[in-house]
Amino acid sequence: MARLALLAVPVALLLSLSFLLLRPASPPLPFSRQQAASGPDRRRLLRVYVAELPRALNHGLLDLYWSLPAADSRIPASSDPDHPPPRPPRAHSPYPDSPLIKQYSAEYWLLASLQPGSSSAPAVRVVADWRDADVVFVPFFATLSAEMELGWGAKGAFRRKEGNEDYRRQREVVDRVTAHPAWRRSGGRDHVFVLTGFVKY
């Protein structure tokens, strides 16, 4: 029995060593992932259609922001790095540096990544026809619209409807998007709206 026990030790060591030397360098992928990695669709990108909205609902809001002569009413004038706006006017309207607004810039950067000539990694493919799209991106700078209403329109609080420029813009976006055939095709399930931050009405 003692000899059998002594013989079992080197056999166990040999099996362990064989396992370590002969095992694959990395664990195999699940079957579905292997298929995806080797199949013809391995380079298929998400197809995005950018909904057609007037410039006034995205980059035009930046033009409007930089044309405002006064500082944001919610902070001291000396704390607003954007107002009064720089002179001479800038060739293009960058996203604001104001700490109240800059943190809500996701929709700006996402739209920029979908523009022709973008240097962003090709994670998606922008298509010209909504019928070819997997998702529809709605390029509305929603948070900038709301922040401008708070800082320059309603002075820190939202009006319900009358005189609320943010509400008017939101209503225009909804009316335009829901009237498009792309919305009717899916009921909006494939539409992407970017809304950052928290606004209490």
Jot down its keywords.
single chain, 201 residues, alpha/beta, 4-stranded parallel sheet
- The portion of residues forming beta strands comes to 5-15%
Tally of helical runs = 8
| Low-pLDDT sequence parts | 1-40
Oligomer: single chain
Q: Please tally the β strands and state the result.
A: 4
Whole-number tally of structural domains: 1
Biggest sheet: strands, sense, closure? 4 strands, parallel
Spell the H/E element sequence: HHEHHHEEHHHE
| C-alpha end-to-end distance | 83 Å
The helix content is 40-55%
Rg over C-alpha atoms, rounded to the nearest angstrom:
28 Å
Strands ordered across the widest β-sheet? 2-1-3-4
Structural class: alpha/beta
User: Mean of the pLDDT scores?
Assistant: 76
User: What overall geometry do the principal axes of the alpha carbons give?
Assistant: globular
GO molecular function: glycosyltransferase activity
Subcellular location: Golgi apparatus membrane
GO cellular component, one term: Golgi membrane
Keywords: Glycosyltransferase, Golgi apparatus, Signal, Signal-anchor, Transferase, Transmembrane
